[in-house]
Amino acid sequence: MPLRDLLLGLLVIVIWAFNIIVIKVGVDDMPPLMLMTLRFMLVAVLVVPFTRVTRRQLPWLLVLSVTFGGLHFPLLFLGLGQAEAGTGALLVQMGTPFATLLAAVFLKERLDLRRLLGLLLAFAGAVILAGGPALPNATATLTLLTSALAWAVSTLIIKRAPAISPLTLTGWIALFAIPQVALGSWLFETQHLQTLRHAGWIGWGAVFYTAVMSSIIAYGLWYALLRRHPINRVVPLTLLMPVIAVFLGVWLLDDGLDSHKLLGGALVIAGLAVINLPGRRRPRAAS
User: Fold this and answer.
1) Residue 52 burial (C-beta neighbours within 10 Å; 0-12, 13-18, 19+)
2) Which of 8, 19, 94, 131 fits a 20 to 30 Å CA distance from 241?
3) pTM score of the predicted model
4) How far apart are CA 78 and CA 172, in angstroms?
């Protein structure tokens, strides 16, 4: 990969890692579901007018608006409100092992010994993280793991869906998710008008960053890299995201760096590496 594209890939990873920090501080200034609703509204306004969907794509986008927009993102925001940023980032990475398992069960994709080892490492790491002091209660762990599972389900749906451009996917999922998340905010959160009047630059900055920087700019750059380079050269960069998020949490939020986080995080990342990185192909015997 040329140096320019490598630096762009690393920039995307840093944007996504910092997104975890932004969400964490943002939900301290605004209720999570209200923040999520405003984020979706901004994404929809900026993207939907410039994209179009077909009748064939529409049902798939509606389903994805539930699994992605109504479950994955709101649960991520809720979970990060109760957990340390780095631990949350590591637990959400369990979406990859979940997706691997679901693909083996429902899509009959081959689960070889290497990927099975990766699954065992990742789940062992999640168990160690869940037992550490960085998570205040079991609810946060369950919320973040359910968010990861919703992401995994969404990836399987995208595999089965007709081709939809990434920007269209982002904008229309956001549009259809607005009433779902807004309803949840109305039912479970209070003092909406007062919160909007008194929200500071941190809350509004979180809305802007999660919508524009993370959803639109970062994903736009990421899919451009995927178009120019083989997947196995681009995707491994994502292994750096939770590592950077952990250290950003320690540096900016004074998160702890205990043995559970170090060992559990190392196992999760090792498991992801085994699952994602291509194995060596055996040379064919001469005929």
Assistant:
1) exposed
2) 131
3) 0.87
4) 22
Give the closest residue to 219 by CA, choosing from 18, 13, 65, 7. Answer: 13
Tokens of 127: 């168990």
In eight-state DSSP terms, residue 277 is S
Cα 247 to the center of its chain, rounded Å = 18
- DSSP assignment of 179-230 equals HHHHHHHHHH---HHHHHHH--HHHHHHHHIIIIIIIIIIHHHHHHHHHHS-
Highest mean pLDDT among 134-148, 224-238, 272-286: 134-148
Q: Is the pLDDT of residue 215 over 80?
A: yes
CA distance 72 to 63: 13
Tens-digit pLDDT profile for residues 125-145: 888 876 666 555 788 889 999
Spacing of C-alpha 113 from chain mean position: 26
